[in-house]
Specification:
By secondary structure, this protein is mainly alpha-helical. The chain is built from seven helices and two strands, in the order αααββαααα. The longest helix has 17 residues.
Amino acid sequence: MTMEQRIINQARKGSDVNPGLPGNLPALLVAQAKHETGNFTSNAFKRHNNLFGYSYVPGGRYQIGAGLVADNGQPVAHYASPEDSVREIIDWLYRRVKEGKFTFSQIQTPDDYAQHIRRAGYYTDTFANYSAGLKRFFTKNPAFPIVGILLVLSLWLIR
């Protein structure tokens, strides 16, 4: 299973305390993870399963320790699996919704997502840079090519 599919699956499943994410949010998490990790090549990802650049917070529900020190001088969170990193961001998003920072229905596009998570304090980069990074990797339905191929193959086999 690809990393993209693992992210989608966990985002749809939810975390230990929150349900799965609606709409385009699973696909936006894939774009965010690819942007934050340089398409899954960063040391934070390879060594610490950290998909979203999340900083270490002692006592974090899914974090199992501190990882390497990031450019901001803070250690990144270390996770047992990439799915735990997805669970962490799901919980972060639900906390921001409960705080009234945004609603999930307000987030449909990479621009919407970049705008709302920036206002909620997730990143300090410029909106233009972060949004461009999301757009570079955003696919509205990442599973479609596989599903489409399987559909065509099954139709061909039926004839």
